[in-house]
Amino acid sequence: MGVPEGEGCRETGSRWVRWFCRLWAVDRLAEIAGRLTDVGGVVGVCLGGSRAKGTDRPDSDFDLGLYYRPPLDTAALRLLASELTGESVEVTEPGGWGPWVDGGAWLTVDGCRVDWIYRDLDRVHRIWEECREGRFEVGVQAGHPLGVYSHAYVGEVAVGRVLADPVGELRVLQRETRRYPEPLREALIANAQWEAPFTLANARKGAARGDAFYVAGCLFRAVGLLVQGLHAHAGCWVLNEKGAVQGAGRLPAAPADFAARAHGLFAMSGTTPGALSTVLDTADELAAEVCRQLTS
Fold first, then answer.
1. Which residue ranges does the record assign to the Polymerase nucleotidyl transferase domain (predicted)?
2. Is the pLDDT of residue 147 over 90?
3. Degrees (nearest 5) of the Cα angle 144, 148, 149?
């Protein structure tokens, strides 16, 4: 099924585009996922991101998580990508996009953007065990200014939509991960309650020198910690930074107008010590409210 000229899924704001992409996705993605599991090393395929969560826009990509065990036959993936797109596609080796995003490919299939994103399934299993023990790590990764929280790997499985799973391993893992581990919940709440105030306190040193760059970084980090804590309190997985503040604002423990207040911190103008100190006063108030709520 092709896309009429000039009306591809790269356009935004069109009801027709939204309708087409959803209709296209029903059968076409299942077909692509089935072909992917024929590739050596691929264990299963999940639809992730906004398309899986139902928060997609007309221009949203279709993110396909390729859960694999080494060795992954990337030559076969390149051949399949070429067949699907009609052109040569760059398909990375595992790790080609960094330690946490891993690797994959960006495709345009029938006018719609389809991203292949590698996930080492044994690594996901290991991280799941760490989550159940209340352990997590934050990794540096291009495109993720807050860093990648390791439990995002587990959240991707929990909220994803399994498209192909020949041996049933992904569905078993998904059933397990739907229940948020209490040790992880406690660890993330405790981390937010100490590190967010600590980060804001450190920002005062930068504010006194008029170091707006340092203060902005501390504000971003502190808000990110509060967002992680609020999601953990509610037993909800955070996959990345995008939309996370708005999502946190809808959670039961969030203070009134949390999202607007958090975003407002970054709109307060001024680079003088006095102006920066005022912003931090406001941030301290918000952090204190969240930390109190996290104890309830």
1. 34-73
2. yes
3. 145
Q: Which of 155, 177, 199 is the endpoint of a domain?
A: 177
Calculate the alpha carbon distances from 154 to 94, 125, 148, 160 in Å. 19, 8, 12, 10
Beta bridge partners of 106: 115
pLDDT tens digits, residue range 276-291? 999 999 999 999 999 9
Record the pTM. Answer: 0.91
At 56 the pLDDT is: 74
pLDDT bin (cut points 50, 70, 90) of residue 20 is: low
Tokens of 190: 């405790």
Residues 6+ away with beta carbon under 8 Å from 14? 7, 58
Same domain, 26 and 170: yes
Which of 94, 123, 75, 112 lies closest to 104 in space, CA to CA?
A: 94
49 assigned to some structural domain: yes
8: pLDDT strictly greater than 50: no
Whether 281 and 162 share a structural domain: no
Nearest to 254 by CA among 268, 236, 233: 233
The burial class, CB within 10 Å (0-12 / 13-18 / 19+), for 125 is middle
